[in-house]
Predict the 3D structure of the following.
Amino acid sequence: MALFGNSDSDLQRRIDALERRVAALEHAALRSGQPAPGQPARPAPTGEFHEGWVSDEVRILAASGKKINAIKMLREQSGLGLKEAKDIVDQL
């Protein structure tokens, strides 16, 4: 009895499944704003607000009336609190 299954095809099937899971986790990490493995964390903005903090994606969401989604995305990207992100999106 083999350690990882009875055949090479079983082992390959398990490897393929693991690769799909890793790809899904990497995709989820990118969407959540977490740095990819081996990448440095992006520091949260400090100091007074300036326009450079807001990504084009956030601006598009705010301009299309999707303020809640814009606030969520700004918080993920910047690490700002709810009130601060809401105030910024309201200014856009």
Remarks:
- The chain has four helices and no strands.
- The chain has a mean pLDDT of 76.
- The CA atoms of residues 17 and 56 lie 35 Å apart.
